[in-house]
């Protein structure tokens, strides 16, 4: 599997969440994703970008276009240096929220992608990586 | 401040969301709609999201909240124009907007709101 192109988008404000999902839309279109897959990726990106702003005190999204034999994909890494998540199992539960949301951000985003990885812990920020293959 | 315009059509309020909303804009719309219902005595709210390429949990919650708040203020809300890809994604995300009335397009949405307003439907729901 090879990364054919990558770049970083800062996510520091609510406006940046909009810019991040627009960037993901363009990337997914470039890779030839269908409209449903595009929408799923953009929606997952929106949830994770918002988490980075609201809970992570801002961070960044690194995107990577992937090529693996005949198939292509898009991987997104959302990284923040916020307080991290102490109880990951609880945070991944549908409907559980530490803030004012619906508690669907992490668990919902996981359902919208093919691969989902999260690395976090109290005091060490949060890194979420998601991949969707065409 | 940036705002989504709300149009008044007789007893109804009409909102067409055409921009990719950031969270504060969505919150402002929710506040504007509830205060307009109170101010105008509107009996129905039609929200057209045919221009939206994505509805995430935040925007979904804004729609569900607006519908619930309108109901408490004696106004029905109908959501129209959701794109199929948005519906598929929203349900997989875990948000089915169960309490929100929907119609395929503005015309059918208006028909539904008018039916709700008709005296004959006071005690029951109309099918459109």
Describe this structure in words.
The complex is a heterodimer of chains A (134) and B (128). With 134 residues, chain A is α+β, with helices and mostly antiparallel strands. Chain A has a single domain (2-133), classed as Heat Shock Protein 90. Chain A is 36% helix and 33% strand. Chain A has a five-stranded antiparallel sheet, with helices on one face. In chain A, strand 2 (59-68) and strand 3 (71-80) form a beta hairpin. The radius of gyration of chain A is 14 Å and the shape is globular. The mean pLDDT of chain A is 93. Chain B has 128 residues and is an alpha/beta fold. Chain B has a single domain, classed as STAS domain (Transcription Regulator spoIIAA, 2-Layer Sandwich). Helix content of chain B is 44%, strand content 17%. Chain B is built from four helices and five strands, in the order ββαβαβαβα. Chain B has helices at residues 23-40, 57-72, 84-93, 106-117, and strands at 6-9, 12-16, 44-48, 76-80, 101-103. Chain B has a five-stranded mixed sheet with strand order 1-2-3-4-5, sandwiched between helices. In chain B, helix 3 (84-93) links the parallel strand 4 and strand 5 (101-103). The longest helix of chain B is centred in the first third of the chain and has 18 residues, at 23-40. Chain B starts with 5 loop residues before the first strand and ends in an 11-residue tail after the last helix. The mean pLDDT of chain B is 92. The interface between A and B is medium-sized, with 27 and 24 residues.
């Amino acid at each position: 599997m090879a990364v054919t192109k990558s770049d970083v988008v800062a996510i520091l404000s609510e406006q940046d969440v909009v810019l991040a999902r627009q960037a993901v839309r363009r990337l997914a279109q470039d890779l030839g994703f269908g409209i449903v897959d595009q929408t799923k990726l953009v929606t997952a990106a929106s949830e994770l970008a918002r988490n980075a702003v609201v809970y992570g005190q801002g961070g960044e999204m690194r995107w990577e276009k992937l090529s693996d034999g005949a198939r292509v994909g898009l991987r997104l890494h959302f990284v923040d240096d916020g307080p991290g998540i102490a109880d990951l199992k609880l945070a991944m539960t549908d409907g559980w929220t530490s803030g004012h949301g619906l508690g669907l951000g992490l668990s919902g985003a996981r359902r919208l992608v093919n691969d989902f990885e999260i690395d976090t812990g109290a005091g060490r920020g949060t890194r979420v990586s998601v991949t969707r293959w065409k | 401040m940036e705002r989504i315009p709300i149009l008044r059509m007789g007893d109804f309020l009409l909102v067409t969301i055409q921009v990719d909303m950031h969270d504060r804009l969505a919150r402002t719309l929710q506040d504007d709609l509830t205060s307009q219902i109170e101010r105008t005595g509107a009996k129905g709210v039609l929200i057209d999201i045919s221009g939206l390429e994505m509805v995430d949990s935040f925007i979904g919650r804004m729609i569900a909240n607006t519908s619930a708040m309108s109901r408490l203020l004696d106004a029905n809300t109908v959501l129209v124009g959701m794109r199929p890809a948005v519906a598929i994604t929203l349900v997989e995300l875990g948000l089915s907007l169960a309490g929100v009335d929907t119609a395929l397009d503005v015309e059918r949405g208006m028909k539904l709101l008018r039916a709700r307003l008709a005296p004959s439907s006071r005690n029951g729901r109309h099918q459109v």
